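[User] I wish I could look at a protein chain and see how it folds. I have put the entry right below:
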Amino acid sequence: MPTSAPPRNRFERRRAETRNALVRAARQILAETGDTSVSIQAIADRADVGFGSFYNHFQSKAELFDAAVADALEEFGQAIDKSLEGVEDPAELVAGGFRLTARMVDSHPELMRVLRHRGLTHIHSDRGLAPRARRDLERGITSGRFLPVDPAVAVSATGGALLSLVELRFSRPDLDGEEAAASLAEMALRMLGVPLDEAHEVTRRPLPTPADTHTTPQSPTDAT
């Protein structure tokens, strides 16, 4: 799970480990059911920490689950960034985001289930893929690659399509995920103003050489 530099001493490390365990437990619950009504005791038991430890780190379950979603979104964004490193064309970046997301349903199922259950409410989050998508869309708009639309509207349109792809991959595992992702990415590019033939070509370009997109969990320094 993506965070900052590791804690400096044993006390900080232990506190960070406890916090990370609670966040991991919340992520697992979100991935499995999306149900946030589970008791604090059940969360603590799953995290293998004491009940009282919960309130050393979070004031409420809502705060914990928000932290879990933010953590998952940031891991997702970092994974896409890593895989598309070096790609300059905004259209190819948008297409790559769709295609890699479809693959991550298989390679990172827990992460994608969190996105499936909670992604829509965080579509304009300042963490994860949303700010990265806005960056790429603004670049495309500024350069004339995309139509001159409000970037927030463009994020809503492409983000909604991306989340629908995640839902499609889970609900219809029999479908060809690669082709579904490419086709939906093509539709998104056409919506952004990329001509038909070009949108088709961009979404069928070879993806960058696959890299290990799993981010190694690190302990945050801001655990309290």
Summary: The chain is about 65% helix and 0% strand. Confidence is low (pLDDT under 50) at residues 211-224.
